[in-house]
Design brief:
The structure holds 2 protein chains of 2 kinds.
Chain A lengths: L3 H12 L3 E5 L5 E5 L4 H10 L7 E9 L8 E9 L4 E9 L5 E3 L8 H12 L2 E3 L34 H4 L2
Parallel strand pairs in A: 2-5, 6-7
Antiparallel strand pairs in A: 1-2, 3-4, 4-5
Chain B lengths: L17 E4 L2 E4 L1 H10 L4 E5 L2 H10 L22 E5 L7 H10 L5 E5 H6 L20 E3 L6 H17 L8 H9 L4
Parallel strand pairs in B: 3-4, 4-5, 5-6
Antiparallel strand pairs in B: 1-2
Helix pairs in contact in B: 1-5, 2-5
Classes of the chains: A alpha/beta, B alpha/beta.
Chain lengths: 166, 186
């Protein structure tokens, strides 16, 4: 029976101080690893005997504008389908240099997920075979889900205040 | 044997102003053409969201847009006179909408149904076109979120009014060409 304690123990044995901040919000094991270590952790979780996290549920990014030097988080969610267990780990990166190694070599599904994270947050996935926008128009020159824009652009003239009750 | 009954309630449109005599009728070309065009519109429904559902009600038996001579919806823009844009148009959809509009032959009319097509509606955001009049010229805007079928029919009748009163030379006029040029359409 695979439990969160066993997973944490195996990870700590393998990676030592490179995996940290273990927590279990709503029972889901969550931890942080270093930016350059993400593929090693992912590969270990997938290939290691007894862990078998062979399915990438989701890959996304979060912008924390207040964490200077660690503004962008890339979140990986893996699932062990046989055990019905899910696990989440994060890497943090600097927003001025948002390079993270691509997971496309381990999970094919990371291809589109990383394109989405690039599209909305500007995470640069190093080694990605086709890192272009997936959802937004190609001409867009910013990453819309970064928390660096005012909620409403006060300089816009295409909206008439009289009609929109502002 | 049942008596043969005829529908005596058939309505036909009034003849335009003109001069009638025995066996002939004269009127202006633009009025005759306008009358014919306005009562035989082929609409192209460009429905992307909930306004399209209201349009389905508009087309169905209860409201019955066919009464206005628009029985025949066409899904090929090349055969259509009127494009009815119903729903949110994202910025990524804008070139598609424009392409569909360009494929329509002149004379063509455009109706923006609902808040989203008219102005972007509640979607005041990075991914949504803030009104289709940013990419194509619009003849009639129908307000509402979504508008009721009555409102869509009202907008449709206003389109009919526009068509009925349009000069047959309008599409060749400098003013019209200027309008298209302002949208980058030659």
């Amino acid at each position: 029976m695979l439990t969160n304690e066993i997973i944490q123990q195996q990870l700590t044995e393998k990676f030592g101080a490179l995996v940290y901040n273990f927590e279990e919000p709503y029972g889901m094991l969550t931890f942080v690893t270093d930016r350059d270590n993400n593929l090693k952790v992912m590969n270990f979780l997938k290939e290691s005997e007894g862990l078998g996290f062979n399915f990438l549920n989701d890959l996304t990014a979060v912008h924390y504008p207040d964490q200077i030097g660690k503004e962008l988080a890339v979140v990986y969610m893996l699932q062990n389908i046989q055990a019905g267990l899910r696990i989440r780990f994060k890497v943090f990166t600097d927003i001025t240099n948002p390079d993270v190694f691509t997971a496309t070599g381990i999970f094919e599904t990371a291809n589109w997920l990383e394109r989405e994270a690039y599209d909305f947050f500007g995470v640069n996935f190093v080694g990605h075979p086709n890192l272009i926008r997936i959802m937004n128009v190609e001409e867009m020159d910013y990453h819309p889900l970064r928390k660096e824009y005012p909620l409403e652009d006060q300089t816009r003239i295409d909206k008439d205040d009289d009609m929109f009750g502002r | 044997m049942r008596p043969v009954t005829h529908n005596t309630k058939v309505k036909v449109v009034d003849a335009p102003q003109g001069f009638a005599g025995e066996g002939f009728f004269t009127t202006k070309m633009s009025e005759a053409v306008g009358l014919a065009r306005s009562n035989s519109i082929w609409p192209l429904p460009f429905a992307t969201s909930c306004c399209g559902i209201e349009f389905m009600a508009t087309m169905a038996a209860h409201y019955d847009l066919a009464r206005f001579g628009a029985e025949r919806l066409s899904f090929s823009p090349r055969q259509c006179d009127l494009i009815m844009v119903m729903g949110t148009i994202s910025k990524k959809m804008a070139p598609v909408l424009r392409q569909v509009y360009l494929q329509m032959a002149e004379p063509r009319w455009v109706m923006a149904v609902g808040a989203c097509a008219s102005s972007g509606g509640v979607f005041d955001t990075y991914s949504v076109l803030q009104g289709i009049d940013q990419v194509i010229p619009v003849d009639v805007y129908v307000p509402g979120c979504p508008p009721r079928p009555e409102a869509i029919i009202d907008g449709f009748m206003r389109i009919q009014d526009l068509i009925r009163t349009e000069s047959i030379r309008r599409r060749e006029s400098d003013k019209y060409k200027e309008l298209l040029n302002s949208y980058g359409i030659q």
